Each structure stands twice: as structure tokens, then as C-alpha cells.
Amino acid sequence: MSVLASGTPMCDRPETAEPVPKSALGRAHRLFSCFHYDETRLTLSELSRRSGLPLSTTHRMVTEMVRLGMLDRDRDDRLCIGVNLWRLGLLAGTYGIQRVALPYMQDLYATTGLPIHLAIPQGEQTTVVESLRPLEQRLERPRIGQHDPMHVVGNGMAILAFSDPPLQQRYLARLACTEAEDVRRELARTRTIGYSVSTRRTGPSIAIGAPVLDRGGRPLAAISIIVPPGSAVTPYGHLMRDTAHAVQRMAWDQALV
């Protein structure tokens, strides 16, 4: 799903900044990007308005997508993501690491009762691919599919700390000087202790993340936990580091990397 750096779905904006794509594939992507957690079912007119596509074009494309099982209609004739699109999504490379990590995340959640998240790197952002949290926090950030700049979230800092130096330098060069120095010090500490500690996005709660690395030492993903303000960080840090290492070993054993 296309989102802004803040995690806002592209089609939530009053007017779409990007020009309407000329290709059929680009227009299809524009339509799919209009669905998100808060609104999983949309009418044809809502899809047309949010995507910026003419109603006639939207109707024609939606009819074909329904026929192919990429979209479905509910009893009220609203549209939602179809089973065939979901099935294709399971073939994404992220599904392997998600499948391996989930049992360990469930153990962490059962032990701590605290929010547990799994994120993967995508360019200079992270994308959440799995999330476990208490029921009362089900509507809070982050959500599965959400993008975030690496330096503002715990799992992103864990990923960035173990990324290739050229990527780190490019990333830091885009930050203000003072912030870049702060992030650089945090990255060095993360590499030393094996886990990140961040309050940028979660404050006053604390995000603690640990990387899952491939055989070459590059980050495949990161697991993070959100702990209450004032919590002792070190025990949770060791717990996250040990969990990430267990996921890493299983990923290697299953030849995911």
C-alpha cells in the first residue's frame, strides 16, 4: 500500500498529488492503494474519487478485477480486496521470514503481554509485516503494511545499524546535522550491544529492536517490542537480541537466505 512517510495511506489525501498513471498497471495500483485498515470496503464512486480515475475507467477496471478474483463485492455491493490477490501476496519474499518469526513473536507476546512487531527493510524505510498487541491497542500504530523512515522506529534503527555503510551515509546525509549526529551515535551503540533503543515514535514508551541478519551479515528484518516508560531496558534488550538470533538461525536452517 502506498503511504507517506508518516504512514498515511496515499488515497487519504484530499487530492492525489501524483498524476494519473497512463499505464493499466499503474492505474490498477492506484485503485488497490485506496484500500487500507480503516476502510477495507469502498463503493465504486469512492474508488473513483480517491484514485483520481474517471468513473467510467474505474467501472471498467473494477469489473475485470472482480472477474479475476482480485476484488470482491459484499452484500451491499461494496468492493474489497479479493482472495486471488491475497493468495498472490502470500508468494512475496517477506512471507518466509514472517512465517519463521511468528512462533517466536507469539512466545514473546505470551511472556510479556507487550506489543511485538516484525519489520523488513524497503529502500530507506521499514515496512511492518507482522504485529501482535493487546486487544485494547489494536488501532494504535504501527499497522501491518505501514512504512516508516528507519531512524524514527526501533526496528528501523536495528536495521539501519547493520546496513551497508553507503546506505547509512546516504540516509544520514538527508537528516539535519544535529539529528544526524544523534542517530550516528545511536547506530554505533546498537552495533555494539546488538539491539536498538528508541523513543522517537513511541515516547514516552520505549521501542527496543534487534536485527535478523542473513549469512552475509545484512539485515533481513528486525523484531521490536514496545515497553512502558521507566522499564529496565537491558533485560528486554537481551530478550529481543536472543529472539532475533533464534529467528535468524531458523531462517538459515530453512534456507530462506
TrEMBL record:
InterPro entries: GAF-like_dom_sf, HTH_MetabolicPath_Reg, Tscrpt_reg_IclR_C, Tscrpt_reg_IclR_N, WH-like_DNA-bd_sf, WH_DNA-bd_sf. It comes from the Bacteria. Residues 84-253 form the IclR-ED domain. Keywords: DNA-binding, Transcription, Transcription regulation. Residues 22-90 form the HTH iclR-type domain. The keyword Transcription applies. Transmembrane segments: none annotated. It holds the Pfam family IclR_C. This is IclR family transcriptional regulator. PANTHER family: HELIX-TURN-HELIX TRANSCRIPTIONAL REGULATOR, ICLR FAMILY, HTH-TYPE TRANSCRIPTIONAL REPRESSOR ALLR.
